[in-house]
Amino acid sequence: MAAGGSDDNSGAAPIFQSLPHSQVVLGGLPVARALPVRGRRMVGPWCFLDRFGPLSFPEKQKLMDVPPHPHIGLQTVTWLLDGEILHDDSLGCEAIATPGGVNVMTAGAGIAHAEQTPLKTSHRLDGVQLWIALPDAHRHIAPSFENIATVPAIEQPGGVVQVFSGTLAGGLRCPASHYSALVGADLELQRGRKLELALDPSWEHAVILLQGDAAAGPGQPLIAGYLHYLNPGRSSLELNSPSGARVLLIGGPPFPEQILMWWNFVARTPEEIAGARAEWEQPHHPRFGEVKAYRGPRLKAPALLRPIAPPKNR
Ligand code: MN
Fold first, then answer.
1. CB of 203 within 8 A of CB of 255?
2. Ligand 1 centroid to 136 CA: how many Å?
3. Closest alpha carbon to 289 in 69, 15, 90
4. Is the pTM here over 0.70, yes or no?
5. 257-283 pLDDT, tens per residue?
6. H-assigned helices in the chain
């Protein structure tokens, strides 16, 4: 699927566009996909947003078990409201994502990772995983992994703001490495109060309701299961909640490059996708490495839907 330049960001009139999530199942786990969806492929450099939970599961069940799989050209960002996810990658990094902290994996030229419920678990899971498309100048960099145990947070009138990626207009900044201007924030709204956030008017944004009930401004209720897109041109966002809420905010300057997303890859051409797929399908190919901490077979790449012609004149 193609993403990027096809979205219309022009026009000064404020747009509040509500787009339903699609429902998918990932390794037995029901997931609501908020990005990409029909009508919206990206919000700034954010190109993927999966919402899972809230879920609770019995003692003997391992809720999440995603075997080793590859990524290129993107960063993954894992943000939890409840529960825990164990990350292991082919660099040998291991970290447990927990609420209040963020895991950021930079795939760059290529990495493999596995994600699973750790042995010691609360038996609950509630969170999001997002992907950020890397800009062309940085998409072939060496892979890396960062775990930030506690992200910057500030209490302000009407609620608590936690910034898990980038910078919120007005100052709060998460120290994880990023390669485009962007923000990812969790907004906890107090019951019956208003929270006002400054926005960069040259950025586009989107919000999703994570918990409770909330509205943007006086008349735009946030609907559970919908991504609400806000076009550039706004210098602030006012949120209110009759009974308390958690709201996810993402944003950034409209991404200036056309990307191509397939499976776990973000690239620019079908040839790059086919090349990365072929390298993953070769056991022990050095591009992605091995996730040595994971016991069990890795994921196989799906078949390409259509054959990709080799590049011409090369
Ligand atoms: Mn992954």
1. no
2. 20
3. 90
4. yes
5. 999 999 999 999 999 999 999 999 998
6. 270-281
